[in-house]
Design brief:
Layout (H helix, E strand, L loop, with lengths): L2 H22 L8 H33 L7 H19 L6 H9 L4 H22 L2 E14 L3 E13 L7 E14 L2 E9 L1
Antiparallel strand pairs: 1-2, 2-3, 3-4
Helix pairs in contact: 3-4
Length: 197
């Protein structure tokens, strides 16, 4: 083996020895603050978005959907009373006072139901009440508000109705239940739907 070979071998060994430990132990790298911020940017954006959406939801709830300010116990009581009074007026009439009875009923109605009631009483109820001396009297036995919003309400009523006529002077009795749809117009609850259930 020549001196040149030995020197070359030493160089190879030396190079191998120097590179081995350098590969095994890597010195720690310093991370810049910007790199750390960039790494956590997704989490920061997500937290900001969640906070913003929670704030928006709270604002919508308190400004639009929180109805207890306009649908408190007094509003519920007023809607229930309007449904009861309107229903009694709607279902009670006498042949001696038809015009007055129908006018009283109409004062509690609104919308398409008012149009329907006007047409129905003119074409069906008035002729029958006059010819057959039909007289009806309704009483609300029980009622409850099932749904209420600032301008609309649904009320369930249980009704007893007595009907007298020439054909049945002793009278007939009927018990029924109705779902009354109310709409608030100019501060007054008016009946816009009247559905037997």
């Amino acid at each position: 083996m020549s001196a040149e070979d030995t020197d070359a071998g030493d160089e190879v060994i030396s190079t191998t020895e120097e590179s081995g430990p350098a590969d095994a132990v890597e010195p720690p790298r310093r991370r810049s603050p910007m790199a750390a911020l960039r790494r956590h940017l997704g989490a920061v954006v997500l937290v900001v978005a969640l906070v913003a959406s929670a704030g928006a939801a709270a604002a919508v709830y308190f400004s639009q959907y929180r109805q207890d300010r306009e649908t408190d116990a007094a509003a519920t009581g007023a809607a229930l009373e309007a449904a009861k009074t309107g229903t009694v007026a709607l279902l009670s009439y006498s042949p001696d006072s038809l015009d007055k009875d129908f006018a009283a009923a109409k004062s509690h109605l609104t919308g398409e139901f008012l149009s329907y009631y006007t047409d129905f009483t003119t074409k069906v109820v008035a002729p029958a009440a006059t010819q057959k001396a039909v007289q009806t009297k309704a009483d609300v036995v029980q009622g409850a508000v099932s749904e209420i919003h600032p301008d609309t309400a649904q009320v369930l009523l249980f009704i007893n109705q007595t009907t007298l006529s020439k054909e049945n002077p002793d009278g007939s009795f009927a018990a029924s239940s109705v779902k009354v749809g109310l709409k608030k117009i100019d501060g007054a609850w008016l009946i816009e739907k009247f559905d037997p259930v």
